[in-house]
Design brief:
This protein has 19 helices and two strands. By secondary structure, it is mostly helical. The protein is globular and about 70 Å long. It folds into two domains: 224 residues, no CATH class; 221 residues, no CATH class. Strands 1-2 form a two-stranded antiparallel ribbon. Helix 4 packs antiparallel against helix 8.
Length: 558
């Protein structure tokens, strides 16, 4: 404690001491939360206002705010890295649950695509820079630098439990979190307006179409700056196609920064962790079948819906899409139920230790699922209340019901796994049982020969340092781990199948397969303005849910 007090304004105290320091820690957290709330509200106000032409907030106002926020985060990250590197006692421990390699690897993958998107943006805005504000070109340049610096920062510091400059670190992390959320809001707004513009172009009046055109440009410069060249169109279409990767990058980074914020000033008791051996067969085969089939359905859906004007082709594409998703969601629901049943026979204790990573995982799973729940319930109401009902409506209703069921059962399955003790901690054997594991490679029949025919137990001198052991107890003890390994292997097979299935269910809506816009039932029931707004708001949460489910399955089972 004396060493910690020498470099920290907030010395650590054991749990038995008075709670005054804990109260001050909560006060520091509250101050950083208030800072984040005010910045988030300001960013949300500007982003939402900048999407409408009649409001006197232009897109370059939004870009200016986001640029300033990203520059502040870059400066703070440099300060953090330099400060912690110069102080040898700045990071006394690391959270082994935070920032696993696969999560950081996924962050790097999304960062690469985000950088490509920024290059496309720079090329697009540079095509007519003479009639645009300079901030539109500066913004993607700063965003590219921000992505590089933040990715490096999270790669090397995601596990840190910092013990210097606690309040400054908390405020800096909250600033980073808010900046990522603001960039996410801006990207979602741009992508939603662009999708609405491309999907509803044929179904709206000229006046609404003109409004969508202006909203898509987010400024009155749409009529002054025309993108007529082929290279300009490539840049424009390219960065809109890469928006899903940038959206997922911002959400991944926000989740990792939040865990770092929770770990500021934290001391961790390190526990041993079990290393799983990757012995998948059935789960990965079935998952690959679903993945490859889903990619084929996606390609056919895009070709028939977007390239063909015939209604029969559109109906065939919707039927194929719904049948595939019904089969996939049904299988996923069944395996999740099976995994939850297996947990009823799992003897591992529940992990009741404080774990900010697990708390965040549960909150994100439950919160992100609300987006898909909302879309499904809106679809159910529209289908039941609409007439006439055809085969596509029946498939759509089944799809909506299975979507609700699959999200529910999968959340239960994943959350159960998150709250279980690691497998290695599931050894509750007494002293003589622990010693028996040393006899794993001993011939059981040879041991039995040393037992009298009367069935009496071995004498204490027979096995040095152990109690009397009956052969049946020996056999039962040596065979018990095999049963546990079988159950855990089965859970890992289930998780591998769910992982690959969630990946294809993320890819399909992220890359354009959105039947909510192509099915006329909901569009006719709710109208041309309400239904697209519902989908644009809720669908990004559903897409993020799939990615976070993949992350949670990797963390718990694989």
């Amino acid at each position: 404690s004396s060493q910690i007090a020498s470099f920290s304004h907030q010395p650590h105290q054991p749990p038995s001491t008075p709670a005054s320091k804990e109260v001050w820690k909560k006060g520091g957290r509250m101050f950083s939360i208030l800072l984040a709330v005010h910045l988030a509200l300001l960013a949300c106000t500007l982003v939402s206002s900048g999407a409408f032409e009649k409001i006197a907030v232009h897109d370059y106002d939004v870009f200016f705010l986001l640029t300033v926020m990203m520059l502040m985060v870059i400066i703070w990250i440099i300060f953090y890295l330099v400060g912690t590197s110069r102080c040898p006692d700045a990071i006394l421990c690391k959270d082994s649950h935070a920032g696993p390699v696969w999560l950081r690897g996924g962050l790097i993958l999304f960062a690469i695509f985000s950088l490509v998107m920024d290059v496309f943006k720079i090329g697009y805005y540079s095509s007519f820079y003479s009639c645009l504000s300079a901030i539109k070109i500066i913004y993607p340049i700063v965003q590219a630098i921000f992505v590089v610096v933040q990715t490096y920062f999270l790669w090397i510091s995601a596990k840190d439990c910092v013990h210097v400059h606690l309040n400054v670190t908390r405020c800096g992390l909250m600033l980073t979190l808010t900046t990522n959320l603001a960039v996410w809001m801006s990207a979602v707004t741009d992508e939603s307006v662009h999708k609405a513009h491309s999907k509803l172009k044929k179904n709206v009046t000229e006046e609404i179409f003109r409004w969508l055109l202006k909203a898509g440009m987010r400024s009155s410069s749409a009529e002054e700056c025309n993108c007529n060249s082929q290279i300009c169109q490539i840049f424009k279409n390219g960065y809109f196609w890469l928006y899903p990767f940038n959206i997922e990058y911002s959400l991944f980074a926000s989740a990792m920064v939040y865990v770092m914020w929770k770990n500021v000033g934290r001391f961790i008791d390190h526990h041993s962790h079990h290393i799983h051996h990757l012995t998948f067969f059935v789960g990965i085969v079935l998952g690959l079948i679903i993945l490859v089939s889903g990619l084929g359905v996606l390609i056919l859906y895009e070709v028939q819906v977007n390239s063909s004007t015939e209604s029969s082709k559109k109906s065939q594409a919707l039927t194929m899409y719904y049948i595939f998703n019904i089969v996939c969601l049904g299988l996923m629901s069944l395996v999740c139920i099976g995994g939850s049943v297996i947990y009823r026979f799992d003897k591992r204790d529940m992990d009741r230790h404080k774990n900010p990573t697990r708390t965040l995982d549960v909150a994100l799973l439950m919160g992100a699922a609300l987006g898909q729940y909302a879309i499904s319930y809106y679809s159910i109401v529209a289908i039941v209340a609409s007439t006439p009902r055809d085969a596509i409506s029946a498939l759509n209703l089944t799809y909506a019901l299975l979507m609700i069921a699959q999200h529910t059962f999968q959340n239960i399955f994943i959350i159960e796994g998150l709250h279980r003790q690691p497998p290695k901690e599931d050894h509750k054997h007494d002293s003589h049982q622990k010693d028996l594991y040393g006899l794993t490679f001993v011939n059981i029949n040879a041991v039995s020969l040393r037992v009298p025919d009367s069935g009496s137990t071995l004498a204490p001198s027979t096995v040095s340092g152990t109690e009397a052991i009956h052969p049946s107890d020996l056999v039962r003890t040596l065979t018990a781990p095999k049963k546990m390994n079988w159950r855990r292997k089965f859970l890992r097979e289930i998780s591998m199948f769910l992982l690959l299935s969630n990946i294809i269910l993320w890819i399909m809506p992220a890359f354009g397969a959105r039947p909510q816009f192509d099915n006329d039932t909901e569009l006719n029931f709710y109208g041309d303005s309400m239904w697209p707004a519902i989908v644009d708001i809720c669908l990004p949460f559903g897409i993020f849910y799939r990615m976070h489910a993949v992350a949670s399955l990797l963390e718990v089972y694989i």
